[in-house]
Specification:
Length: about 130
Amino acid sequence: MNGSDQGFTDIGDLDLAYRLAINQLKQIGVTKGTSETTYAPSINVPRWQMALFIVRLLQADGIALPDGSDQGFDDIGGLSAEAQLAVNQLKQLGVISLSGQYEPNVDMSRDLMAEFMARSLAAIRARQGF
């Protein structure tokens, strides 16, 4: 994973560190972009997409994930099967503390993103016996 160009034509004006990070995430399958050639770096990230990013990152690192069985969210039925699975897996891991409504199309706030990331790290450590 070296951050080599992954074909996103809309990231050329970003700082090198951002371009490398985006290309690395594409290389390991965390992001697929908004199309084959676009990443759309300036758009917001909804909660459902953040769930996908986190689960894909955990998978890329070889972290065993729970089965993703239905966790009772009544507002994720319109999401792709992959996104529904990711939301349910993160609930099972304790990354998502919400119940009933996940509000998948609400943009991630920085504080909620930080909470998701911290809980993801805790879940990884717990699964690895730390």
